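Worked example 3 (structure in, sequence out).
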């Protein structure tokens, strides 16, 4: 078996990821069609020290179903509502929700649940996506790619690791805006200080 390349977390861990402080708890709202991308994003967020509420581990249709049968299984949550309950609770309790666009109505509902509960939402705009009024308004900050989202989360974590002492002086408006939203959420009962 060929050895796999080392992940960022195996090469270097940022100081805030190694601290005794709890990590940012993140849920990624995205369509089942983006399952692989959501998993890769989650892996990179874990490498930053984040705790993931990962629906991709729960949404696993039984083997042997055709694509049409898998769609029906996903749309009806044949697991007695367990996937729905997990995703709903994740949206309500996370420190941050990341919308992975372009996604469908389920991800839009998840964004609405999160925004309604005061959980900040970072939106990754799909390549051809023009979010509608409600989705656009429920997201506190939009970016054009996963790399930009990861950079923002890493920089917000750095501020959290210092107890938010320099956030008000942060020169980058996007980092400051997302950091303020996460700080408010954490002050209201999230996991970071």
């Amino acid at each position: 078996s060929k050895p796999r390349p080392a992940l960022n977390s195996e090469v270097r861990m940022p100081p805030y990821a190694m601290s005794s402080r709890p990590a940012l708890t993140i849920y990624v709202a995205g369509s089942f069609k983006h399952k692989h991308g959501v998993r890769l994003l989650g892996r990179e967020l874990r490498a930053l020290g984040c705790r993931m509420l990962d629906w991709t581990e729960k949404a696993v249709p039984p083997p042997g179903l055709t694509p049409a049968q898998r769609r029906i299984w996903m749309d009806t949550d044949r697991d007695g509502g367990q996937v729905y309950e997990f995703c709903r609770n994740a949206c309500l309790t996370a420190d941050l929700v990341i919308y992975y666009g372009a996604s469908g109505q389920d991800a839009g509902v998840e964004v609405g649940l999160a925004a309604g509960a005061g959980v900040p939402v970072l939106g990754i705009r799909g390549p051809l996506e023009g979010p509608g009024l409600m989705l656009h308004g429920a997201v506190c900050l939009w970016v054009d790619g996963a790399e930009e989202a990861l950079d923002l989360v890493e920089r917000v974590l750095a501020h959290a690791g210092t107890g938010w002492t320099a956030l008000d002086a942060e020169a980058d408006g996007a980092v400051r805006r997302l950091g303020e939203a996460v700080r408010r959420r954490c002050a209201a009962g999230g996991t970071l200080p």
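Notes: Residues 1-22 have pLDDT under 50 and may be disordered. Residues 3 and 10 are 14 Å apart (CA to CA).
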